[in-house]
Design brief:
Layout: H1 2-27, H2 34-59, H3 67-84, H4 90-115, H5 119-138, H6 155-158, E1 160-161, E2 165-166, H7 167-185, H8 187-197, H9 199-204, H10 209-235, H11 247-257, H12 268-288, H13 292-318
Antiparallel strand pairs: 1-2
């Protein structure tokens, strides 16, 4: 009995996600249609990729308020590179965009690690800088150059593998697997958590805490960039405000994830389950009600609930 109790305590988020899906299915049988399930998974993937990135910086004990702006910048960069330059190779544009986003992560790390500005202030300032760059690239307008963009532009966001599995799902699985392996099964990845747990102790045993934080910021920026590319591909457009509404959902999934598996610890599997739950609730609400204010209530409630759960769990662990 004690064994099952421990399993439930560690996996309750997964059970709750399944129960929520069942409830929505009872209220609206159309919820279980394959197209709807695929839509839920596709919408979960963008928040999931972004959340996996944030998990890495949260593991170091820091946070990145510029994550939403990074999503916007990535979508705008792709649009401008493919629509206003002679470069028409989609893969090259993706790589170039991710490299630029990597430099945004380095800039955040420079402000925090080198200059000493607290991460939340440094990244908040960076968010406005990045928003300004995105607006300058697009003249503060939505970009929609369908005739100029290559056909591959929509593949990452709207394509299907074997005509069945959405490409965003494939990307999320690959990203999740890579970051999970890195953080859980490599020494370098575990250093991220070591720094977040006790930076002073890491300095004593020879772990470069500053380097680990730099890695956290860069990984976060690159994955937020990938999320932006995916979202731009899904919408077949790019906007400098595209990622503004992405930060809170991603933040919520990360905190929800800290109540799953490794209780009180930000972890990749928990973030992925949290992303699915978040997308599932949003889609379910859209199917049973048209009241947008209810969606905002639920989003805010989920974030506050996740924060309270993490605080309670950590306080319980200290006793």
């Amino acid at each position: 009995m004690e064994k099952w109790k421990n399993v439930f305590e560690k996996r309750w988020l997964l059970f709750f996600t399944i129960a929520t899906a069942v409830v929505f299915g009872i209220i609206s049988p159309a919820f279980w249609q394959l197209t709807n399930i695929l839509n839920i998974l596709s919408s979960a993937c963008i928040v999931g990729v972004m959340g996996v990135g944030l998990t890495c910086i949260f593991a170091t004990g820091e946070l990145d308020f510029s994550a939403g702006a990074q999503v916007s910048l990535a979508s705008c960069l792709m649009a401008v590179i493919l629509g206003r330059t002679s470069l028409d190779n989609y893969a090259t544009a993706v790589v170039l965009t991710l490299i630029i986003l990597g430099f945004v992560g380095l800039y955040n790390a420079f402000l925090h690690v080198k200059i000493g500005i607290p991460a939340f202030i440094a990244t908040l300032g960076t968010s406005y800088l990045v928003k300004g760059i995105a607006k300058a690239l697009t003249n503060s307008k939505t970009v929609n150059n369908l005739l100029q963009w290559p056909e591959e532009f929509t593949f990452i966001g709207q394509g299907y593998l074997f005509g069945i599995i959405p490409m965003p799902v494939i990307i999320l699985i690959i990203v999740g697997a890579i970051i999970l392996f890195y953080t859980e099964y490599t020494r370098a990845g575990k250093y991220l958590y070591a720094v977040g747990s006790n930076l002073t102790a890491c300095d004593y045993i020879g772990i470069d805490g500053k380097l680990q934080k730099v890695k956290g910021f860069v990984i976060t920026a690159v994955l937020c960039g990938l999320a932006g590319i995916m979202q731009g591909s899904q919408m077949n457009a790019a906007s400098p405000t595209l990622g503004e509404n992405m930060f809170v959902p991603a933040l919520t999934t990360v905190f929800l994830g800290a109540t799953y598996g490794k209780i009180g610890v930000f972890n990749v599997p928990g973030t992925l389950v949290g992303a699915v739950l978040y997308a599932l609730i949003n889609q379910g609400l859209l199917m049973i009600t048209s009241e947008l204010w209810l969606k905002n209530y639920v989003q805010g409630g989920m974030l506050l609930f996740a924060l309270m759960m993490v605080i309670v769990i950590r306080e319980k662990g200290r006793k």
